Amino acid sequence: MEKEVTIYDLAHKLEISPATVSRALQDHPAISKKTKKKIFELAEEMGYRTNNFARNLRNKNTNTIGVIVPRLDSYFMSTVIAGIENTAGNLGYQIIISQSSEQVKKEASSANTLFNSRVDGLLVSLAYDTEDLSHFDIFLKKKVPIIFFDRVTDYDGCMNILIDNRKAANEATRHLIQQGCRRLVHLTAIPKRNVYIDRLEGFKQALEEAGLPYSEDQVIIDNLSQEAGVRAAEIISKMKPLPDGVFVSNDNCATVCMITLKKMGIRIPEDIAFVGFNNDPVCKVAEPNLTTINYPGYEMGQVAARSLISHLSGAVNIHATTAITLRADLIVRASSMRIKSS
Amino acid sequence: MEKEVTIYDLAHKLEISPATVSRALQDHPAISKKTKKKIFELAEEMGYRTNNFARNLRNKNTNTIGVIVPRLDSYFMSTVIAGIENTAGNLGYQIIISQSSEQVKKEASSANTLFNSRVDGLLVSLAYDTEDLSHFDIFLKKKVPIIFFDRVTDYDGCMNILIDNRKAANEATRHLIQQGCRRLVHLTAIPKRNVYIDRLEGFKQALEEAGLPYSEDQVIIDNLSQEAGVRAAEIISKMKPLPDGVFVSNDNCATVCMITLKKMGIRIPEDIAFVGFNNDPVCKVAEPNLTTINYPGYEMGQVAARSLISHLSGAVNIHATTAITLRADLIVRASSMRIKSS
C-alpha cells in the first residue's frame, strides 16, 4: 500500500501552515472559503484520508453501530436493516452487520467480534435458541449500549423495540371469529422467543374471549418456511372436522399453505379463511390476497437506530425506557373475507 | 466511558509479566494451556478488548469490507448480502453496509465515508443512474480494490461478478417461443445499467434467431415494482392483437402483472405465457407458479467476498481477472407450460 498522505504534505504543497490545513479540514470559521476550497481540492486530488482511526483512538468512539440479526435473507429483516442504515447514515453513523444464522454460538462470536471492533452501540434481534445472554455482558461492563428489536429479551435494563405481538395475534384471531370461523388453527414456530410465545398467547386469548374451546391440537409447530406451508396443508386437510380459519405467524408460509390447500379442492376463504403476519410483498401475489398484520420493519429499523444514537449523543438515556412498542395493524384482504359486507 | 483494561492490568493482577500475557492472548505455543486459561478468564472478567484499533493503525488494515448496494430491501439483494456476510465472517472480515437508494449522489457520499473508514476493499452494485464513476477514484489511488457485482461497469480494470444476462434473457425468450408464443413482450426497467441492457439484447436476439419481427412497442419500461405490474397488465390487455408471451425482468413485478391479467379473464399460460427473473420465493406462491431465471444471489455474495479477500491476502490478484460469470438457469414452471409434454 502507498504511503498515507498527511496534512503536512498538503501544507507543504500549498506553502501554508499545517495548522491552517488542519483547521480548514475541520471547517473552522477562521479560514477563508477560498483557502478551504484550495485545500479540499488538493486533499481530494492527493487522496488524503481524514484519520478516522487515529481520531477514534483519541475520541474513544468509532461512529459505528453493530447489528446482529438471525438471518439477512428474509424480506422483513431486510426492511429493518434498510431502516437502520437510512437513519444511521443520515446521522453520520455506519453499520456493521452480522448474522447469527439462528445459532447462539454464532451470535456469541459475532458479539465478540463487534465488541473488539469497538462499536459504539449494538442492535440485536436474537437467534431462535438464545437463552444464555452472557455473551453480551462485556458490552454492559464497558457501558456500550444494547437495544433489542423484534426478537427481544429481558436483559439488564436494555431497551426493547417491538410490536405488541399478543395484541396483533388477538386481533387476527378475533377477525377470523368475526368472519364466522369456529374451528381455528395457529401455524407458528416453536414458542421459545417472545414473538412466537406472544402470538400463541394472543391466539388462545381470543378463543377464550369468544368462548371457544382450545386444545393443543390446534397449534401446528414448524419452521415457517415455504416447505412448512406444504407440510401444514397436509396436516390441516386431514383434520376432522376441517378447520375453518388458520392464523399463520409468517406470510410466506401462509401463502404456500393456502395454495396447497386450494390444489386439494379446498376453497379459500369459503372453507378455510387465512390470516398471515408481516405484510410481505407475497400477500398481494397470493390468490386470494392474504389478510395479514402489517409489521412496520422499516420504521422499526429507524426507531432502533435513532434511539441508540440519541443515547450515544447524550440526548436521551435509553435506560430510562424499557420498551418502545410500534403500531401493527390488521390489513384485511380477500383470504379472510367470508362475510362480504365487512 | 471507563478506563480501558490493558495487558499491564492483567499482568499486574496475575503477578506475571506483560510479555507472557501478550503471548498468551496471541495463543503463543510457549505459554502453557493452564496459564492461557487463567489469562483468558481474567481478560473476560475485566472486559479486556484486544486493541484492534491500535493494531490496525500499525498494520494499515481494518479487516472490514465496505458494501454499497442500490437498496437493501429487496429479496435478491438480501440474499447477496447474506452470502457476503457468511463468507467474510468465516474468513475473519466484517462488512460495513451502505445503500445508495438508487441515487448516484448518495452512492458517492457512501463511497467517501467508507474510504475514510479505511475499508480494506469495496464491493459495489451500482445505482440506477450512475454514469460518472469518479467517486471511486480515491480507492484506486490508494490501491484499495473494488469489485462490482450484479450492476457492474467497465472501470479501470476492476473485476465484475455477474451472470450472463443476455444469455439468460435469450433462454427465457427462446423458451416462450418453443412453447408456441409468437407475439412477445418484454417488461423491464430503463436500459441504462448492464442488467437491463443485456436482457433487452437477449430478448431481441432470440426473436431474431426465431425469425420473429421486433418493434419498440414490444418493450414496456417501468420501475419493476408491484404497482408497475398492475400498470403493465393494463397496457398489455389493450394491445391488439393480445401478446401471447411476456418476459419480465423481475419476479415480483411479473407475478402481480400475471394475476392482474387473470382478473381480467385472461388465461395464464393458455392466452399469455409468463417468464420472470430472479427466482424469488414469490414464484412458488403465484398461481400458476412462475417460470423464471434462477439468479444465484447467495453464491454471488460468497464469490464476491471470497475474490476480494483472496486478493487482500495476496493469494490471487483480481486485476488479472476481468469478470466471473455465474451460472443462471431457466426454471420451467406452470406459468409458461403451453405444451404439456415439455
UniProtKB/TrEMBL annotation, chains A, B:
Alphabetized UniProt keyword annotations: DNA-binding, Transcription, Transcription regulation
Domain spans labelled HTH lacI-type: 5-59
Keyword Transcription regulation: yes
InterPro entries in the record: HTH_LacI (IPR000843), LacI/GalR-like_sensor (IPR046335), Lambda_DNA-bd_dom_sf (IPR010982), Peripla_BP_I (IPR028082)
Origin superkingdom: Bacteria
Gene Ontology molecular function, alphabetical: DNA-binding transcription factor activity; transcription cis-regulatory region binding
Pfam families registered for this protein in UniProt: LacI, Peripla_BP_3
Protein name: LacI family transcriptional regulator
Species name: Paraflavisolibacter caeni
